Hints:
Blueprint: E1 2-13, E2 20-31, E3 35-39, H1 46-53, E4 61-66, E5 69-70, H2 76-86, E6 87-91, H3 102-112, H4 119-128, H5 144-157, E7 162-166, H6 174-190, E8 194-199, H7 202-205, E9 210-215, E10 218-221
Parallel strand pairs: 3-8, 3-9, 6-7, 7-8
Antiparallel strand pairs: 1-2, 1-4, 4-5, 9-10
Helix pairs in contact: 3-5, 4-5, 5-6
Amino acid sequence: MSILEARELKKVYGEGENSVHALAGVDLEVNKGEFVAIVGTSGSGKSTLLHMLGGLDRPTSGRVLVNDVDISKLKDDELTIFRRRKIGFVFQAFNLVPVLNVYENVILPMELDGEKVDKDYVDEILETLMLTAKKEALPNQLSGGQQQRVAIARALAFRPAIILADEPTGNLDSKTGQDVLNLLKISAEKYSQTIVMITHNDEIAQMADRIIRIEDGRIVTAGERR
């Protein structure tokens, strides 16, 4: 069952001779519960594609559907709310608030949305990601791997349907990166969430259920579902 779709997705930056076609008509379908890795060289369009799928940027043309909702048609304020409730983001930069402890960083999106925090659920996520002992710690008291796990916990806490991860292991050494990805995969399976991750690391990409390759703004291989 499809949970995320891109249809004839195009993104053009600039005009005339200076225009850059970052996406040149991308069609993509991701099923519920699937873990998909999107790989490509620098400038291939993979980050642009992820930003379009997550509603962080708007396409020049084409559509993005999340749970059959065309997010391309949502107004800015509607899109902000939809994105916060339905899509979790994990970036290469951890984007933690330095004056908030681990627990406060994890529940921040829910508090911004006025949602009641399910403390038992948050504690369960922290335990799954091996962060229980660091609950009161500030970001500067954590290792890079621990900070990334906090970012993952924050993405999971709102129970989003989809997790979008942009080079989530880029600032980590290879072993820590593998450990973090293993935990992300375990967490997503446990909470029935879908992962779309971009990476330039083929070894990391092999952990996914399916690998999609993008070149010059076009998908060249969509991969076989395992």
